[in-house]
Known about the structure:
With 250 residues, this protein is of the alpha/beta class. It has helices at 40-48, 90-95, 107-116, 132-144, 162-178, 190-196, 214-219, 224-234, 238-245; strands spanning 2-11, 14-24, 29-33, 55-60, 63-64, 75-78, 150-154, 183-187, 199-204, 207-212.
Amino acid sequence: MLKLQNISKHFNKKLVLENINLEIKTGEIVSLLGPSGSGKTTLLNIILGLTQMDDGKIIFNEKDISTIPMKNRGFNIVFQDYALFPNLNAYENIVYGLRNKKGLTSEKELQEYIDFLELKPHLTKKIGELSGGQKQRVALARTLVTKPKLLLLDEPLSALDGVIKESIKERIKSIAKEYKLTTIIVTHDPEEALTLSDKILIINKGNISQFGTPQEIINRPNNQFVDEFILNQLRIKRNNIYQLFGEKYA
Length: 250
């Protein structure tokens, strides 16, 4: 379980996050949702250890990791641009993170990840020869082989569309379920959050506007901002949300 306790952050004396309190259960998919500049990416980077918070604590599996460096937290991230090496082929990118971690992942496990993400036909291709969805799967495989304790995704679907986007959504949900891997996703898109997540954290101006299931967000918005943000972003009337997302949101 991941617990955030009273997390606050300033940049150049400007308040970016204020007293963020949150509990995420093992294996849950949680989306950090909010408008540009709301603080969601800063919160993701604080969890990763890339950005230091001003106040608060991060507790992971009952251990205070607030002062533990990023490289020792055992978390891993898939960045928005995938951060793949264009001079290497798909397989070389996947195993790149294992160079200094001999024995972390066996050859059998490595092949299981490759098969799980259906990458075997693409292993010898250079990154420039891959589609957006294939690049995303390579980036996911490269992260999974390092056996992260927590998976962080920064706008994982922003460069994808149509069938490819839906396919990657299902992959992410399958990964979380198959490996009981707690997954935190930054997104600006309510539709992505509502259809992908077990729970959604809506952030506005550095504060939590609501944390709950998709059903709770749709049926019982905490305030006018949550209600209007969801509806305005989707540009549909509330009654149509149920038709768009199915009976499980009714």
